[in-house]
Amino acid sequence: MPDSRRRALDHHSGRANLGPIIPKADHNYVAFFLTLSCNLKCPYCINLHDHVHRIDQARRKMMTADEWISAADRLTLRDDLPLTLQGGEPTLHKGFFRIVNEVKPEIKMDLMTNMMFDVRQFIENVPTWRFDRQAPYAPIRVSYHPGQNDIEDLIRKTFKLQDAGFRVGLYGIAHPDATIAKHIQDVQARCLKLGIDFRTKEFLGFHEDKLYGTFKYDGSINGAAHCACECRTTEIIVDPSGNVFRCHSDLYKGRLPIAHILDADFNEESIDVFRSCQNFGDCNPCDVKVKTNRHQIFGHTSVEIRDIRNTKDDGTIKSSTVPLNVIPAQAGNQ
Ligand code: SF4
Ligand code: SF4
């Protein structure tokens, strides 16, 4: 651990040594991936994108509750920018209840979960005000994975959480497979009838050799050619060990962190630069898909990529049609 970080963490009062991180107006997302462990085993999980093994993800070093609290306390967030806790299944972090209680009260959080937790314990230990923010979507967003978590259980738990004062939304994938799509439609209709907010997410990736999703950069996710480029992110995404990455592809692979969230000299300027990347073609759909931003306006991408070069002939790449185990991206990180 660098001296600067160790000094910053000396005693819990060491938080004062850490400078603030104040995301700018065009920084759209701040997420702490508390753990990449999960209590479900979705075969399409994006945390396992491109041959990353589940066991290796689960073994990744995890920051303690004290460290996450120190990291969150550095943040100064706008009203429309929450700190999102995700994973894996973020509630599996042993310090989850401490984190949601002890981070400074100004920080509002969102939670992305599969809701496999004990709902009574959650209600007893999680303050509603932490997940209470005016937004066009629920701060607690639950992914329904057919065959993995049970929709009846999710509905029961949603009612209990709502009765306790939490805002909860359920999400399913608009899958291109007709049978799965019909099931999701039926579940959505039933939930809406019950007064439960159930939304669908776009399917991203390949299904039966057809690519689904709208991606800004041709050839970015098919893995057929790894090209050099320059890339700039709009997000602060932090893996379980506290490393900050420029994109989800790097985060899931533990590849080339740009900083540690507890580095004394890390701040919003640190992410706001174009960095050289040799892995264009291995981008994660989350980063390059055209999507709605936090204002629910369509057209945003998480990263901006420029100067794409084939590393062999130094020419501009053409879109490739060769898929490489591309999986439904929206299923990942909840
Ligand atoms: S080009 Fe792709 S792999 Fe490289 S940093 Fe950007 S999003 Fe990540
Ligand atoms: S997709 Fe989500 S719920 Fe399923 S295994 Fe991955 S992290 Fe867990």
Our estimate of the beta-strand percent is 15-25%
Cα distance, first to last residue? Answer: 30 Å
- CATH domain fold name: TIM Barrel
> Which sequence of strands runs across the widest sheet?
6-5-4-3-2-1-10-11-12
Judging by the overall fold, what is the CATH architecture? Answer: Alpha-Beta Barrel
Q: Are there runs of 5+ residues with pLDDT below 50, and where?
A: 11-15, 317-334
State the helicity in percent bands: 10-25%
How many helices? The count is 10
Structural class: alpha/beta
Order of helices and strands: HEHHEHEHEHEHEEEEEEHEHEHEEE
Question: What is the CATH superfamily?
Answer: Aldolase class I
**Major β-sheet, in short?**
9 strands, mixed
- The overall pLDDT, averaged over residues, is 86
Ions, cofactors and other ligands present here are:
iron/sulfur cluster
**How large is the radius of gyration?**
20 Å
Give a summary of the structure in a few sentences.
The chain is built from 10 helices and 16 strands. With 334 residues, it is of the alpha/beta class.
SSE blueprint and pairings:
Layout (H helix, E strand, L loop, with lengths): L2 H7 L19 E5 L20 H6 L5 H9 L9 E4 L9 H7 L6 E5 L5 H7 L14 E4 L7 H13 L4 E7 L3 H16 L3 E6 L2 E3 L2 E3 L14 E7 L1 E4 L4 E3 L2 H6 L5 E2 L7 H4 L3 E6 L4 H4 L2 E2 L5 E3 L2 E7 L25
Parallel strand pairs: 1-2, 1-10, 2-3, 3-4, 4-5, 5-6
Antiparallel strand pairs: 7-8, 9-13, 9-16, 10-11, 11-12, 14-15
Helix pairs in contact: 3-4
The site of one iron/sulfur cluster has 14 residues, from strand 9, helix 8, strand 13 and strand 16.
